[in-house]
Amino acid sequence: MFAYIVRRLLWAVLLLIVLSMVTFSIFYLIPRLGGATPETLATRYVGRAATPETVHLTAERLGFLDPVPVQYWHWLKGVFVGADFDYGAGVEHCPAPCFGYSFITKQPVWPELLDRAPVTISLTIGAAIIWLVAGVSIGVISALRRGTVFDRGAMGVALAGVSLPIFFTGLIALAFFSYKLGITAPGGTYVPFSQNPALWAYSLLLPWITLAFLFSAQYARLTRAGMLETMSEDYIRTARAKGLPERRVILKHALRGALTPVLTIFGLDVGLLLGGAVLTEKTFSLNGLGKYAYDGIVNGDLPKILGVTLVAGFFVIMANLFVDLLYGVIDPRVRLE
Amino acid sequence: MNHSRSWRVRGLTAAGVSAALVLAACGGGGGGTGSQQGSSNQSSQAVFNAASTSVVNPSDKKGGTLKFANPGDWDSLDPGETYYAYSWNFARLYGRSLMMFKSGPGKEGNQLVPDLAEAPGKSSDGAKTWTYKIRKGVKFDDGTEVTSADVKYAVLRSTDKQTFPNGPAYWEAPSALNLPNGYKGPYKTPNMNTDSAIETPDEYTIVFHMKKPFAAFDYLVQQPDTMPVPKDKDTGAKYRNSIVSTGPYKFADMQPGKSFNLVRNDQWDPATDPNRKALPDRIEVTLNVNADDLDNRLLSGDLDVDVTAVGVQPAAQSRVLQDPTLKANADNPLGVRNWYTSINPTVPPLNNIECRKAIMYGMDHTGYQTAYGGQFAGGDIATTILPPSIPGHVDFDLYPSGPDHKGDLDAAKKSLEACGQPNGFETNIAYRAERPKEKAAAEAFQQALGRIGIKLTLRPYPLADYFAQYCGLPPYVVKNKLGLCINGWGADWPDGFGFLSQITDSRVIRPAGGSSNTSVRIPEVDKMLDTALTELNTDKRNQIWGEIDKRVMQEAVIYPGVYSKALFVRSKNATNIMVTDAYGEYDYLGMGAQK
Prior knowledge:
The complex is a heterodimer of chains A (337) and B (595). Chain A has 13 helices and 2 strands. By secondary structure, chain A is mostly helical. Chain A has a two-stranded antiparallel ribbon with strand order 1-2. Helices cover 26% and strands 18% of the residues of chain B. Chain B has 17 helices and 26 strands. In chain B, helix 12 links the parallel strand 17 and strand 18. Chains A and B meet through helix 3, helix 7 and helix 12 of A and helix 5 of B.
C-alpha cells in the first residue's frame, strides 16, 4: 500500500510538470510559432498610449525576449528555488514555491492561491456533501419506487438540474432569494469559517444549493441506474433468501455495489471543483480559485493561469488517489498493488 | 476612457408623475433628500436623465456609507499608472492633482479648476514653460506637508514605462517634457539632473519645461500622475496597494483583487480645498462582482454605484426601460467617446475621395446604431468626429442620410460614378473578433453598402493585436485590402487635443504599427493641430478643434458612427447624483449618502 501511494505521488509530480509545459506552450510557444514576436505578446500588458519603446521594455520585463524554453526554465526554477521580482523601487525575493508574479496586478501568485483556496474548498465540500446525500438518496428511492410519481418527478427535476447552466440558476436564485426575499446572502459574500461558522454557512448556502442542484441531478440518475442493475443481481436475491431485512439488503449489499461508479465520478468532480468552480464563483462573485483563473484567462495573465492549472491538477490527482484507496474499503475484491 | 450623455426630456406631466412616485421611494429618511434649490441646476425630481444636467437628490448631509462595485479588477489605483476615466474620476477622492475637473453636473463638471495648485498655470516661452504655485498646508495622510518636490517626483516616476507600462504617455512623448537623454525615471537613473524638465525653485513652486508648446497644459496637469507621491513611501509597482493620500479619504482594508475601503483622512484640511464636500464617512468598493448580479444589486438598493460606468447589462436594460419607475431613476448620458470606422485611403479604390464619399452616403446610420446597442445603450447617431460634450464641437452634417438615417443612395451612386466605379467595388472590413458589437457593425456596413454594389468581406482580428499587427500596421492594411477598420476612441480629457491628437494627426501613424489612427493623413490637419497647441486663447483653440473636425470629415476618411451612451441606474441611498461631462459618468466626488 505504501509503495503504491509513493509511486502514485511520483507520477503526480511528473504529470504536473507535463501539465505546466503544455499550458505554457499553449500561451507562449504556439503564438510564437504562429509568428507573434515578444513585442506583440507584450502589447496586451501595456496601456493604449504605449510607445514601441514601452512595449519593448515591457517585453523585456516579462522575460519575453528570452527563448520560450528559457522562459519556462525560469518559471520552473522559481517553483523550486524561488525568484526575484523587480518592482521598480527595489527587488523582492519570492520564496519557493514561487509561481511567479501576475503580469497585471504585480502580486505574487502563490500567496493569492493560498488566500483563495479556502473559498473554493468551502464551496466544494459543502456542495459535495449536499449533492452526494441528496443525489444518492433520490437515486435509491427512485430505483426502489421505479415508475412511481416520485421516480418520474425526481428524474424530471434531475434532467432540469443537468440542463440548466449555473450562471442561469445562480442569477435567478440570487435575484429571488437574496434580493426579493432577502433570506440568503447577496452575491460576493464570504465569511471565513474561522471567523464565524454560522455566517460562513449562511454566506455559502445559496452557492452550495445551486451547485448541488446541478450535480445531485447527475448523481441521482447515476445511483438510480446502478441500483436498478444491482438489485437484479443474484447475490441480492440470495441475501433476501437468507432472510435479511430489506433495509440491510438495500444499504449494505445493493447500495454498496451501486456506489462504485458514483465514487469514481465523485472523485473527479470534487477534484475538478477544488481546482476552481469557475462558473459558480463567477456567478456568485466569490473570490476563489475559479474566479482567479477566469481573471487570468480574460487578461492573458499566464502566471495566474499556470498557478491555478497546477493546483487544479494537484487536486484532481489527489482526489483520484483518495478514491482509488477508498475502492479497497468499499469493494473487498479490489486490491491495490 | 468611457463616457456618455443625451437629452430626452419627457413631458412635464409624465415627469411629474414619475417624480412623485420615485420621490416617495427615494425620499425617506436620512434627511438627505430635501430639495435645496439654491442653484438652478439642482433638482430633487426623479426624471429620466435628470442627472445629466442637474443634481438629483441634492443634500449637504455628512455621514453614511457609499457602496461601489467593479465588475472587474481595477487597472491600478496608483495615480501614476491608472488609465481609465472611472479611475480618474474616483482618484479625486484620495488624491489631489495640480488641476482638476470641478465637481458639478453636465458642462459645469467640464470646467478645470485649481486643486493642489493655487491657480491655473502661467505660461512663458511660447507656451513651452508652465509655472504653478502649490497651496500651503496640504498634507499627506501621514501628516507630512506636500511640497513641489513631491509633485515633481510623482510626474517623473510615471515616466518609467518599464515599471508603469499602462499609464498615459504624455510626459515622456517625444514632444513633451524636456527630459535629459537617457533618463529612465527616478528608480533607474536616480542621480540624473532633471531640472531641464521640471524645476522646483522653492517648496511651493513647480515649473514644467516642454520641448514644444502645449497651450492646453492645464488639462495635462489634471491627470492623476500629478498627484504627489512621497519618495520615501514609494514602492514602485507595489505602490498601488499602499497609496499615501492627499485627498479627503485614505485607503483602509486593502485586499487586492477583492475589495478596499476609503475612510476619512484626518490630515485633510477643508480650508485648503474649495472643491470637495467629502460627504460620506466611508466608501466601500468591491471588486470582481458579476456584472449581471451587480445590476440586480443596484436595482435592489444593495449597491450604490457601478464604478466603471459602462451602464447596465442588456438583461437589466430592458427591465429599466420598460418600468416607468425604474426608468425615472435612470440616466442616459452621452460619453466622450465615438464608435467610428476608419476609411483607409491607402487601399484602392478608396484612394479616390469619391469612392469614400459613396460609403459615407450609402451607409445606414440606424443599422450602425442598432449594432452598438441602439439609442440607449449604443449611442446617438454621429455626424462629426468630436462628440457634443467636447468644447469646440460644432453640429454639421456633410453627408446627409435622409430623414430616416438609412442613407442617401442616389448621392452614393453619383459618388460611385464620379469615382469610376458605377457598379461598386470590393474591399474588406476589419473588426475586433472579441467584440460582438463590432461584428454587428461590420455586418451593418456589409448590408448597407451591398445596396449600392460595394461588396464587403468581414475580417475579424484579435483584439490584443488589432492595431499592432493589423489595422494599425500600414503595410498590412494595403496588402490585405482593409478598406474599412471598425474603430473607437475616447478622449483622455474632454478637450480637442485629448480627443483628436491620437486619431487625426498623421505623425502618430507608425510604419511598425500600433497607432489608432489608421486613415487620417492630411498635412493641413497636422499644421492645424500644431497651431492649436500654441493658441493660449481657449475660445480660439476650441474653434480650431471644430475646424479640424470639419476638415477631416471633408476628406471622408472617418465614418463617425455613434456618440456613445450608457444607461445608468441611480442609487437609492446616494445624494447629489449628477453626471459630469468631464467623464460622462456620475460625479463620484460630490456624491453623498443618506445612511
